[in-house]
Amino acid sequence: MEAVETASRSTSRSLRRVGILYDERMCRHHTPDDEPHPENPNRIRAIWNKLQSAGISQRCEVLSAKEAEDKYILSVHGKSHVDLIRNISSQQYNSRRNRIASKLNSIYLNEGSSEAAYLAAGSVIEVAKRVAKGELDSAFAIVRPPGHHAEHDEAMGFCLFNNVAIATNFLLNEKELGINKILIVDWDVHHGNGTQKTFWKDPRVLFFSVHRHEFGSFYPSNDDGDYTMIGEGPGAGYNINVPWENGRCGDADYLAVWDHILIPVAKQFNPDMILISAGFDAAVGDPLGGCCVTPYGYAMLLRKLMDFARGKIVLALEGGYNLASISNSALACMEVLLDEKIVTGSTEAYPFESTWRVIQVVRQELKAFWSVLADEVPTKLISQKAPIPKILISSCDSEAEDVEELLQEVIRPLSTLRVDEDCRESASVSWRSDLSNIDIWYATFGSNMWKPRFLFYIEGGQVDGMQKLCSGSMDKRPPKEILWKIFPHRLFFGRESTRTWGLGGVAFLHPESKNEDIVHMCLYRITLEQFNDVLHQENISSYDMSSPLFDLTSLDCVKEKGSINLEAVKKGWYHNVVYLGMERDIPILTMTCDLSDIENFKSGKVPLHAPSEDYANTLVKGLVEGGQLSEEEAVSYIKEAATKPL
Ligand code: Q9C
Ligand code: ZN
């Protein structure tokens, strides 16, 4: 009973309706020749993979990206800017694109930029709309390019459209949504200059940004992010900047700002909804940020905001450039949104002296607008300040740190923050638990089309009359679903004999598709962990499986390239994993030979060979019992595949 519950819990939806949005098309925005750049496609891939392997996306409502309509973008940006971003990826700009980008501040552009920019903006609108309507409690839009630096007529700081500002105006303008007051929290390590300007005079939007400022020397390197910038006219008091004087700020500093500025003001403002410009470049290990916020820190910051706006919170990704840091931080935030674990504790480290000073000047500056800020911060609190710890100085300023090491050796001892229960084990457990949450369709064209045969690869054991003992998968759960489909690929039979079937060829699939070919495939919905075990058995490999043959990176890669050869089992006959598309958002994978093997079959170096009677009968049984073909049809289907020249 207990085991059943545990098994179902990992895949069941949360009580909280949490939306998550990811779309591979946003990866098509990259540097023109794919030169290295911190704001690259792997950022959102890493986050998405992490959330999938931790079983998070499975508990969420997964949404697909939509391009924003121009009329919504035009509520923030000027027509000439929208025209430029709409057209910049078209051919007519090919010769000018790089020159245009080089005239902008920290911007690159390519053929995929327009679509990605429209999708990023449209995706934040999409999730925000659903949260506003109450279809979702909260949501995370894993978008790029980021947005908060983009101004009315200017792309800058890796940002093309200001996604969060656009979604905010959308919510306010759709009157029937009933969203009249919005709090934007910008915890990206950089100042959200574009968002600040958009709502400078707007009292419906309280813009709060905490950022590294260093008296105007940190990007975007001007005075816009100063604490004196509080908004204007009716918007006066509705813009709050908390400018760090130095890097190295961490959980304690951010929590102090939350407790003594943001949370009291949020209470008084009483927003209808909260949008978070959720950059993770203040995270420990970030190569640009130089700050030290841990995943627990982010979880706490978010947790404290959930008490407002009836929990209607949307996170939109902004910056964050260390793949491990942003993935772990995003994971911690999703656990908070799902509300299945209790985040408790307070940090043992103290804020810097400069942090208390900044908190005091911000409160001073804004107390005329927010009565909750009027009192002095108790001196007892302020006296609790961190000596600048030497280990943190050296660690946080250097660029390429091993984050895990840093987390373990430096941050954790300083912090008593805990995310309760079992969630923290995930870092240390093997690849199996990661991949056991991901489903794929394993598309079979050979003897595995006959279900009892295939089940031996899952359950282990010895199938009647055959020579081989199968080890099975560690996860012996049967396929969740079985589905048949036809694909435009060529089925053929090759090699002289096998240990399992004796004399005769076995089935292969030509890895490339061709319109005149058809192949019947039986698709088993199994986990990526099970797929690895099948790959291992099919290739009779001696590989020790301490790491997976085919992991999430391989999955991304095969989706992009169409097929990948697995080095570790290159001697196996089915060492080439081929991607056959998606079925209900789940990738379809098969395993076969590669193109060089095809050449060897064609040249006769490796023989083509009709299947043995036993083997052919197994395929026929599969096709007939699977309800695909009559017996005669199945027999002639196999015969044709065995006789037609390759
Ligand atoms: N010396 C975001 O995090 N750095 N943007 C340029 C020039 C640009 C960061 C440095 C940093 C932009 C969304
Ligand atoms: Zn940033």
UniProtKB/TrEMBL annotation:
Spans traversing the lipid bilayer: none
Domain Histone deacetylase: 37-336
Requisite cofactors: Zn(2+)
Pfam families with a match to the protein in the record: Hist_deacetyl (PF00850)
Keyword list, A-Z: Chromatin regulator, Repressor
Protein name per UniProt: Histone deacetylase 5-like isoform X6
